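Working notes for the structural subgroup meeting. M.R. asked for a predicted model of this chain before we commit to crystallization trials. I am recording the input and output together here so anyone reviewing the notebook later can reproduce the run.

Input as submitted:
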Amino acid sequence: MEITRWVAGGMTVAIATALTLVSAGPAQAYPKGSCGQSYRKVASYPLTQGAKDGKSYGTVTLYQSPTAHAKCAIARVASSSIGKTSYLYVELFVDRNRNKKYDGPDKGAASGSEKYKWFAGPVHIYGVDHRCVQFAGAVRIGSKPLARGGTPAGTWMYCG
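Returned structure, recorded in C-alpha cell form:
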C-alpha cells in the first residue's frame, strides 16, 4: 500500500489566520482542506457510524480531477467539534485492475493522526481515470467512540 503523508505547514497572521497543507514530497501548498484547483466534488458521507448519539461528527469527501487524472479524499470534522478531536483519519483505495476486489495491483492512500484537529488529508492517487474507488474517514471526539463513514464496506463505486 502506498501511503501519502501530509503535514501542517506554516501559519500566517493577518486579518485572519490561514492554515495550509504542504506535502511531504514536492513543495505544493493547498488551501485548508482542498485537493487542488482542478478537483470537483464527487461524493460525501457523514461520519456517523459508531456514534452512540447518532450525531454526525464530520464528513469524508471524494474529489476527482480529469486534468490531473487523479482522485482525492479528505475527512473534515464538524464545525461544532473543531479542536476537540483525539483522532482523525481518511483513506482512499483504487481498483487498479478493475476486478472490484482489493488485491495486489490496487493502490491505497491514507492519512491519520491524533494531531489533526480540523481535517485529515488530502490523500491523492494519480493515473486512475475510470477506476472505481472505496474511501472512508473516521473521527474520535475526546473519549467518545470512533465515528466512521464512507462507501459501504467492500463496495467499489464512483468509477468515472
